[in-house]
Design brief:
Layout (H helix, E strand, L loop, with lengths): L2 E5 L4 H5 L2 H10 L4 E6 L15 E4 L7 H10 L4 E4 L4 H9 L4 E5 L3 H5 L3 E3 L10 H10 L16 H13 L7 E5 L12 H14 L5 E5 L6 H7 L7 E3 L7 H8 L4 E5 L2 H8 L4 E5 L7 H4 L7 E4 L2 H7 L9 H4 L2 H13 L1
Parallel strand pairs: 1-2, 1-4, 2-3, 4-5, 5-6, 7-8, 7-10, 8-9, 10-11, 11-12
Helix pairs in contact: 2-6, 3-4
Amino acid sequence: MKRILLVRTDRVGDVVFITPMIRELRKKYPDAFIATLTRLHTKNIMLNNPHLDLALTDDLSKESFWDVVKELRKYKFNYGLLMMPTERAAYQMFWAGIKTRIGVGHKLYEIITGMRSVSRNNYTPLRHEADYCMDLARKIGVETDDITLEIFLSEKEKAEAAALLEKFGVEQNDLKIMIHTGSLGSAPNWSERKYFNLIQRIFKEFNSDNLKIILTASEMSMDFLRELDKFEEGKIINLSREFDDLRDFIKVIGQADVFMGPSTGPLHISDALGKKTIVIHCHRAMNCPKHQGMINKYSINLEVSEENCKRYCSADQNTCGIENGLGIDEVINAMKKLLKR
């Protein structure tokens, strides 16, 4: 019997990218025991996943290293898949006695621990991050090109999210446009001034009594929030302080008619929930749609053009010109297109 551990202890979006692996491993090995090892808050991504047997966590503290090893030993895993080079996890899987361990690249600690590996070939040709993750599942027999992301909400969770919105005056038949204005530095993004101008345009273009704009980013500044007071009361809902954990946020995203923002974790959650999603992307390889784009058929990826990248970004592309490289008109047109579907 295959007992398979998938390890991804980094960011929210990266953990979402391993959900196709769970599904495809279950299809290939229906009797396998499949578990994940993630950070505590990203474990919330795995809740209700019908293809998963167990979700384990690691707080990445020095003190808990051997506790995690001990926990892994209990389940007698014989396969361990490490999607990104992580020294701590590599040694944990080694000391947990996992016989077949597969990682990415050829780090010294991978060589020392006898880990097998797959190569990303310096991202040439460039593929989606979820597809690179799937390479490790392919290494143990999976054959698929399906990298559709998945997060599962229960009916109870959907009702809880609807009740929260109702508390803020948002009804089920309202047009709910959610905007996540932050990225915590994980992806190129617009300024708050540009998001303010976008909100103005949304109210102008979608002149509807039941339109509600819902804001979710925890890092919104007080100046930005004060500016939003200029709009009609009850039209803009700030939910950024209403989430006790990531699962609460996931439930609320599930209520969106359209979810918009930069290419960061919440947008990948929206993609995995099958929501209509609009994402603004830089043109550089590690942030472009080909590598980090939305996958579901209801989403639109907006990318800075190569011409604008050369015009507005630094020569080494470390300073992104997404502020000028992508316009509000492009987002508005994408919203109109999605709302017609």
